[in-house]
Amino acid sequence: MSKELRNIGDLLRSLGGPAQSYVGRVLSVTDDSCNVDDNGFTFYNVRLRAAIDGKNNRVVLVPKVGSWVMISRIDQSEQFFVSQVSEVERVMMVIQDKYVIKNVATSLKTILNDLVTELKAAIINTPSGPGSISPSTMTKLDLVNAKVNKLFQE
Question: Does 136 score more than 80 pLDDT?
Answer without folding.
Answer: yes
